[in-house]
Amino acid sequence: MTATGPAQTPSHVIDLTGRVAVVTGASSGLGRRFAVVLARAGATVLAAARREDRLKELAAEQDGILPHRCDVTDETDCMALIARAEELGGVDILVNNAGWAESLPALEQSVASFRKTLDIDVTALFQLSVLAARSMSQRGAGAIVNIASILGLVASAPVTQSAYGAAKGAVVSLTRHLAAEWARSGVRVNAIAPGWFPSELTADMLDDDSARRWIGRNTPMGRPGRPEELDGALLLLASPGGAYITGQTLAVDGGWTAR
Ligand SMILES: NC(=O)c1ccc[n+]([C@@H]2O[C@H](COP(=O)([O-])OP(=O)(O)OC[C@H]3O[C@@H](n4cnc5c(N)ncnc54)[C@H](OP(=O)(O)O)[C@@H]3O)[C@@H](O)[C@H]2O)c1
């Protein structure tokens, strides 16, 4: 073994040419961006969500993206999604991005609403990860990138999102457990914990002046994130550039969790 290893250009390290990627929740927000970034890095991307019209628009805008309708809480839909990836050669990259949150004080939240959050944000992610890992481990390689949240690492107060925080905390833990369990089969599992980024999910917060000022005051970098500021973390964890990284959660949060 040498200290330098084989020479590679920086762009080669994140080249995804010939890879098949699945991105859930690609009909809006961060998932839409993730699908475009992976496609521009050379991957064929199955863009999955329930709003198929949005996915078709996305596929028309960016080469390399194929729309696929999927409700991640529906087991049959998840199996069909991974089966479609098999037809394309097998899933190399899975980005578990689909997510949902409800802002409610815990004292006012029903158990049904708590369960719904866990269903979308954790159980569906677990199911898709298992389906993908079966296929990846047969080929001895694969990268799963889970989209967690800073609210899985620290409390959300004064924002009232305890169910969402519990779900994202579970995503962080599941990322470690699955990574350790699958490490020897070549399947890497990592997570990104975004801070505050503009999307449908955060529109109420980021469109509100006082909430935006609160985010600015509490973020060491003084502002919310820009969608493109997640590109580097995604490409690192999804590509050969992250070949020896597994079980990690990378906060991309302008310093929010460093305080
Ligand atoms: N924006 C932020 O500041 C931020 C911060 C931390 C973490 N995150 C995480 O980032 C991820 C993306 O969120 P976003 O901010 O981009 O919000 P968003 O714009 O609301 O996107 C959520 C996506 O999830 C999909 N989705 C929801 N339920 C689904 C289901 N049952 N089946 C399939 N797809 C489903 C939606 O698609 P359809 O409705 O078309 O199905 C949509 O594409 C989430 O996991 C979120 O928790 C976001």
* Amount of beta strand: 5-15%
Structural class determined from secondary elements: alpha/beta
The CATH topology is given as: Rossmann fold
Q: Using the alpha-carbon principal axes, give the shape.
A: globular
SSE order, one letter for each helix or strand: HEHEHEHEHEHEHHHE
Number of strands: 7
The CATH superfamily name is: NAD(P)-binding Rossmann-like Domain
Low-confidence stretches: none
Mean pLDDT: 96
In DSSP terms, counting alpha (H) and pi (I) runs of 4 or more, how many helices?
9
Give the quaternary arrangement of the chains.
single chain
Percent range of helical residues: 40-55%
Structural domain count: 1
Strand order of the largest sheet: 3-2-1-4-5-6-7
Q: Mind telling me the CATH class? A: Alpha Beta
For the record, give the distance between the C-alpha atoms at the N and C termini, rounded to a whole number: 40 Å
Task: Explain what the structure shows.
The structure is a single chain. The protein has a single domain, classed as NAD(P)-binding Rossmann-like Domain (Rossmann fold, 3-Layer(aba) Sandwich), CATH 3.40.50. The longest helix has 29 residues, at 111-139. Helix 4 runs parallel beside helix 5. The protein has helices at residues 10-13, 29-40, 52-61, 75-87, 111-139, 162-182, 203-206, 209-218, 231-238; strands at 20-24, 44-49, 65-69, 93-96, 142-147, 187-194, 249-252. The protein is of the alpha/beta class and 259 residues long. The mean pLDDT is 96. 43% of the residues lie in helices and 15% in strands. It is globular and about 50 Å long. The structure holds NADP nicotinamide-adenine-dinucleotide phosphate. NADP nicotinamide-adenine-dinucleotide phosphate binds next to helix 2.
